[in-house]
Amino acid sequence: MAQEYKLKGVTSLDLKPGDKQEVEIEGIEGAKVLLLNAGACFNGKTGDVEDAPALDALPVFKAVERDGAVYITGDEASIKSGHRRPSKFKCKATGGDKIVVVGGGSGSLGTVEGLRENGYKGPITVITNEGYLPIDRPKLSKALMTDLQKLQWRDEEFFKTGDVEFVQDEVTGVNFGSKTVATKAGGKFAYTKLVLATGGTPRVLPLQGFKVLGNIFTLRNVGDAKKINEAIGEKGKKIVIIGSSFIGMELAVATSNGNDVTVVGMEKVPLERILGEKVGGAIQKLVESKGVKFYMSAGVEKAEPSTSNPSTVGSVHLKDGTKLDADLVILGVGVVPATEYLKDNSVVELQQDGSLKVDEYFSVVGLKDVYAIGDIASFPYHGPAGDGKYVRIEHWNVAQKAGRIVAGHITNPARADIQSQVFAPIFWSALGAQMRYAGNTQANGYDDVVVQGSFDEGKWVAYYTKGETVVAMASMGKDPAMAQFAQLLPLGKLPSKTELQNGLDILIETDCLRLASSGMPPVIYIAFCVVWRFTQLTVIGLLTVIVYRIGFHPLRRVPGPKLAAISNIWQAKYVRDGKVRQLVRDVHEKYGPVVRVGPDEVWVSSPEGFKAIYGASNGFEKSDFYIATALNRPEGIDWHLNLHWPDTLDLLSEFDTKRYRLQRRLIGPVYASSNVKKFEPAVEEVLERAIAELKKLEREGSELDLKEWMHILAVECLGAAVLSWSPNYIQQRSDGGTSGQSYLGWKRKSVFGLFPLITKISFWSKGISRWWANAWGVTFTTPKGFKPFFTPVYQKSSKRVTAALALAQKRADQQQKQPQKPSKKAPKSKPAEKKDLLEDLIQLHLARPDEFTETYLRRLAVTNFGAGHETLCSTLTAAIAMIASHEHVQRHVADEAWLSRSHRGTKETTATAPYAYTQAAIKEAQRLWPVIGMVLPRRVPYSHTINIGGYDIPGGTTVGCAPLVLHLDEGVFGPQADTYEPGRWLPSTSPAHRPATPDEQEEQIRRLREMERCNLIWGGGGRTCPGRFLAEMIIRKVVTALVGEFEVAITSGLPIDAANEERMSCYFMAMMSGVKVRFRSRRDKGLTDLGAEEEEAEEGRAVSGKTR
């Protein structure tokens, strides 16, 4: 008996389109009802099925809102059931009409249930060769399910209640004249109406081995699925799936757990023909995350037998020579219409693909009382941009819908609402996540795809458009969007391409229209109007700014990407993705030496521009980009949004030029070449330990990551020279992930630097900082057990500074109490002081405490590591990689290393030993692989306007040169500037190999000076690296030690082709990554004929190798 029940936790029936909510019912234990706002499959009033893929109708209950709660009325049994079988299916067949349905799939089920529900009382016979009742066929490929109890939609008893006869036999022919169907078992069945729904037959490959070898499968029925499961057995199998459309991809996911699965496809990416390259590529990445491997754009040549069992497949060979080992092979290369029984029938005309041409009611053209549905039917499609073009759609949903259309036409031919014009094709696929698809692109294709959402987050909708018309959509993680699309498509209410590009969300847009017509309260309406007006004004303001920046800005005539005139967002996307190397080259190649890359930013690649920006006399200050690198929080901000910084010696981010110059003068003597020379023994001791460890690794046959080991040496050498300390990285054979984590930090700084206003606000609002970082995907999790070396560096340097200052104060106090008297006795020797850079800085502070303050001292002690470890690592990696990848260069550097050793014990020191070629090789690597990946940004003084390349650049504009492009200027660096040629840094002989004339010597000197001056290896203008001489000493020591002791062999990562460069992320800080090496002890430790080698290089330019 029906009664009223209250729904738990529900206060309103206000649901958005596509929303659904499962709720419990008070008073009925375990019972739940589903609240939903949908109409794609069910009648909202009766709960009856209106469209596939639904089969069971929904029970419908009266619902009311009362006193802040929702109540439904119904009987307990109906509420608990959750669904109901078609109420009109039961009948006892009578009458002379006979309907025969050939095939036992989705289309047959839709036809049979549609006939009974529409009131047909005559006999129905279904002839199928599958051996079971209609099943949920998609579960075969999605899960390889074989349990008929779970697969069959209806049991035998259900069909008996509707007096539907199932005959398990195979149809061999149809006599359309006598209206009879013949079967393989000799049966003959008369009909008045015939529905052909025989589905598809999987394609096989007409190639060597595929028709004769065992363990090569197709998938169409339960028997096929059982055979595949039996072949897989206990898993651990090598499975090759040929075909990258939906069947192949679903099977790849279904079999990936515990097996080695490989997909071979002819397209560039899976599903490219239907979903396009962009969406197909995203799905490939998703499936790859399951461990599946792909061979795309591939052709299959043959299948070879197994060596252990020649009757079964053992491998698949591709046309490019690739051999794929296989325990079993599954073919997912499509299906052909299963119409073999009609091929010799003169009455019927099969289309070129074997299908039957039908009209809007799926009635076969040219035949009376005969229908064709499902995979064998080519029907006129009247969806968006369809224009009635004939298509054949192989969707389970389409077959069932076509069966219902046929049932409606048979029972009531006069009905107009059964035409396929209202039909929205949909399907779904299990591809690691559920993908939904609605619409159709087969009729006239598509020419663009509009994507909303994020592939990486797994929540996206892709709309396929033809001109301005949206013809189809695919989605993941956004199921309501597909349901809404399926409702709007037959109504002709789909949005346009432009609306979608402008960000329209079909769910939100429809929801707004619904709210507008619902009679909202006045307060809500006023709030809505205020928000709407604010939105309008914001849009108008943004449009005004955009128009000004594009059409009236002083930089409007400077060439560059259109988006650059509007915002830095386009540039930030490249930076975030680590594509800076490609970006700086591409924009200059496309737009020339002067390019506008932001609303107020210009990049320059000419020597003329370099001199204008970085010339010592110009005094251009650093741009606001460097705010993102600041070590301190500003002391304040004025109404011009200018920040005011404390005086703490932050050399990289110091904006006060006067203060910076004073700081450089103070520390200059400490970092002078003559002073850092005394740290060489400490660096040499580090290298002795490193060489010993590398020899152990050599004996172990280890392949090493070059970047990590250069970072190990960088930190170890800095630790020895600056702090007389070691992080034990050499002994641990690892830098503990510090290089990777610090590089990710540069990713964040590089993105934030492009948005100075956000960065300024972030100093006072951590929430804004986190929000912006999350929006750009530049938040990082510290690995478990990660130990940064900065912690011990800070602790040790702080402890030493504190102790030194305390000792100095103690001595000063003692001298005040006991003034020193003249003494004839020899002074007592002082305790030995550490000969490292920190000791020099301490002495500088003690000598000039008012200028080189304690704050300066403590900051610079740590800055040596902060500013040095990454730049040293980058330079060392590039130098070793480039030297090792050019045999001629490596031989020369090794010779110089051994020659330098011959000077030990003589009056000639290592500083004067012949390192000219080695230094040239290092400079050349720095030129082609500079530490800076972006530009070194400066700001044109507000009182200036400069002219570069014929373009006036006003004050306040950010300008800069990118080393990656500037260093390739042939006017400065000579011909073939994009090749690695250390000789360009050396004075050369005359063409005839005679001594150079004075004029030639003068020209050589001029050329070398121009190269030295016009590069950004150590910074630009007056803001060069303070620790240059220390860095150069360490780099020279490391390179000569390693190359002199070992033959360095590159095993992977070089040469730098497009694929390798794509994997090398590059930000403001740039590092070569992904290079693997082996260090092999040198056997030949004698010297080669340097003169002969130089002559060979001069004549043949043997040392080359494009870097791009």
Automatic annotation (TrEMBL):
Residues 680-707 form a coiled coil. Keywords: Coiled coil, FAD, Flavoprotein, Iron, Metal-binding, Oxidoreductase. Residues 808-833, 1086-1108 are annotated as: Disordered. Residues 98-403 form the FAD/NAD(P)-binding domain. Gene3D superfamilies: 3.30.390.30, Cytochrome P450 (1.10.630.10), FAD/NAD(P)-binding domain (3.50.50.60). One of its GO terms (molecular function) is oxidoreductase activity, acting on NAD(P)H. One of its GO terms (cellular component) is cytoplasm. Its cofactor is FAD. Residues 808-821 have a biased composition (Low complexity). Residues 427-500 form the Reductase C-terminal domain. Pfam families: p450, Pyr_redox_2, Reductase_C. It comes from the Eukaryota. Belongs to the FAD-dependent oxidoreductase family. This is Cytochrome P450. It comes from Podospora australis.
